[in-house]
Design brief:
alpha+beta; homodimer; 50% helix; Glutathione S-transferase Yfyf (Class Pi), Chain A, domain 2; 8% strand; Thioredoxin-like_sf (chains A, B); Glutaredoxin; globular
Chain lengths: 201, 201
């Protein structure tokens, strides 16, 4: 098999975009080789062809795997988890009931957590506090958000949390322990390295 | 088997909530019997116990299937599609690449379509117009949003579209044909019946 074949996955994006970081995190957890195609957001490269032919709404990330073109970070990571189920870290349980709980907490990240954090500058601090209480209670029930194993549910939270103050989880022992475990993952450290490299440019 | 066993699925919500309608639509497509537990939103029943023990953020819908408690509509419909794959209409392909495209268009509904429609009163009409152009192009490529078959990607759009004017798709033949096909689905008509019944109360 040619070297080209193993580099068939292309990730299009910018390393400072949180959803792009989620996909990088996922690719590292799955131990998949990939080519990072830099899309220059400041010059609006994401709003022009040829990028629009992969991501028609002009949003990063996008992913190409052979002839499959995908966009929307959570759809991409679900695909990687299912299609490469036997590679790297399992990120999505095959049991439908366990899978359902991972989906619940992926939706919470998208519709409740990320949504509130993106509005923090509009005074949603109190709302975030109440949300974190539910998280703290969830992590008293199970080791990770989606269940007893690390999954896509945890993975998608990290780039968003990374925007916030490190004191966010003060007084929340379950969340603090969970966050420390997230930061320690070698796959996340590889993402952080790539972000640093990008900032220096 | 007792009659109780076949009524093991409970859907908690209000029939006029769009995400609740998505789950009803899904349950009807899957030909699953279920008990509808009315949660009275005007009196804040969703923000109190015992509902909070099923849906800790106090949001409808929630679903109980045996001892499994789920919330977030898209997580619930994914669960129903996977766990009852052999019942009623197949709503999620098993092939990972086909499944990925359904996920892409579920994410588009959540993060782009529904998000823009919920902000229409803030002058997002132009943005919606551009979004619908991408949809029209998508439906030139494939019969349904997620691929050649009806899927969760289509299903989640309908309750949101239902809020809008019927002229939304004027001049968009692919979207008009798709919308007509959606409205004609017997499962959707059952949801509409339940909504009418609720309005009369």
């Amino acid at each position: 098999m040619s070297k080209f074949a193993v580099m068939a996955i292309k990730l299009y994006g910018h390393p400072l975009s949180a959803p792009v970081q989620s996909v990088m995190f996922c690719l590292e957890e799955k131990a998949l080789q990939y080519e990072f195609v830099h899309i220059d957001l400041p010059t609006g490269q994401h709003k022009k062809e040829p990028f629009l032919s992969i991501s028609p709404f002009g949003k990063v990330p996008a992913l190409q795997d052979g002839d499959l073109k995908l966009f929307e970070s959570r759809a991409i990571t679900r695909y990687l988890a299912h299609n490469y189920a036997d590679k790297g870290t399992p990120l999505m349980p095959s049991d439908p009931k366990k899978m359902a709980l991972v989906s619940v907490w992926m939706e919470v990240e998208s519709n409740i957590f990320e949504d509130t954090i993106s509005k923090l500058s509009y005074g949603h601090q109190e709302k975030l506090g109440k949300i974190l209480e539910v998280y703290e209670a969830r992590l008293a029930e199970s080791k990770y958000l989606g269940g007893e194993e690390f999954s896509l549910a945890d993975l998608h939270h990290l780039p968003v949390i990374n925007y916030l103050s490190g004191t966010l989880f003060d007084g929340k022992p379950n969340m603090s322990a969970w966050y420390a475990a997230m930061l320690a993952r070698p796959a996340w450290q590889k993402v952080v390295e790539r972000m640093k490299h990008s900032t220096k440019k």
